[in-house]
């Protein structure tokens, strides 16, 4: 076994750099997870300002992928982004960012509820 000793200030600097790298990795994972998140029809219609019928038309024409769970339709955020990029719906990126922010807020609230004893 080899023992390595360093000054306490050098150790603190090293730990500070490790913490910075950790924060960066967590931030990147959160950004990636946001696009992997799922939103329901209500959120999509509300934040993209489209009607239920428009969303239904996109589903029936197979222009958007979705999953149905217990009679409720869910969409990946990445799928919504693809739809906007292909101009299937003409909305600004601000609408998508509002949807992502709302999704993040809901996820945070749900995590807080689950952590309560």
Helix content: 55-70%
- Average per-residue pLDDT, rounded, comes to 80
- Across the major sheet, the strand order is 1-3-2
Rg, please?
21 Å
Tell me the β content.
5-15%
Q: List segments where confidence is low: pLDDT < 50 over at least 5 consecutive residues.
A: none
What is the helix/strand order? HEHHEEHH
For the termini, the CA-CA separation is 44 Å
Tell me the total number of β-strands: 3
Derived from helix and strand composition plus strand pairing, the structural class reads mainly alpha
Categorize the overall geometry.
elongated
Written account of the structure:
By secondary structure, the chain is mostly helical. The protein has five helices and three strands. The protein has one domain (13-109). The model has no long low-confidence stretch (mean pLDDT 80). The longest helix has 29 residues, at 8-36. A three-stranded antiparallel beta sheet has the order 1-3-2.
Draw up the topology in text.
Elements: H1 8-36, E1 38-40, H2 41-48, H3 52-60, E2 67-69, E3 72-76, H4 77-85, H5 93-115
Antiparallel strand pairs: 1-3, 2-3
Helix pairs in contact: 2-5, 4-5
Features:
117 residues; 5 helices; mainly alpha; 3 strands
Put the structure in a nutshell.
This protein is mainly alpha-helical and 117 residues long.
